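Task card 7
Instruction: Convert sequence to structure tokens.
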Amino acid sequence: MKKVFSICVLSLFFSTQSSANFFDDLVDAVEKSAKNTATNMAADAASGMIRDMFIGYSAEQTKTDTQVSKEYEQENGSLPVNTTVSSYKTRMLPGSAVSPGTKVTVKSSIEVIPGKNGKQAKIEEQLTIFDNEDNSLVLKSMTKSAGKSSSKGGQFAGEFTFTLPEGLPQGMYPIRSTLLLNGELAGDQDHQLQLVMRIDELDEKQMIAIVDINH
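Output:
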């Protein structure tokens, strides 16, 4: 009788343990699902706000193709066979940390050397903003012409402008500016833009970290 009772107690114990484990796993699954749902909703909301955000672009030619050709020949002896990008640099203003409603400007300096073949050059700039959580997720991307369609090259100054909207989650948003020459990648520059509610909330260590990221 004692043996039967012991077996029953053990069976009840393991049954109770099994049920407890089942409910623990169920609770974990529900919490994980809720967390994933909240994360996805936040990402969707951020994506929607960025998608509706206006991005302006302007570009001006600061040197003609003749001018850059002459300068290049003086330094290198002769022009390249094919049109070539000799320089592509960008900088982000007012800095790497901004609060919502602050205008952000990504300035670029482009120099394209005409090739000996004399072909026209299609010069374009692309700005891409990535999600602060999933850095592989593109929130917004746009491509604009940096030079005239009849251009063979030259020096250009480009400028993207945008304002991160109120309600966008705080965090580090990777930003990439890309230069395309005749539809092909000719250069790119990466920046990290940190969105904070107030700039003065950043302490000295955070500011040093932000500076390190951009150098």
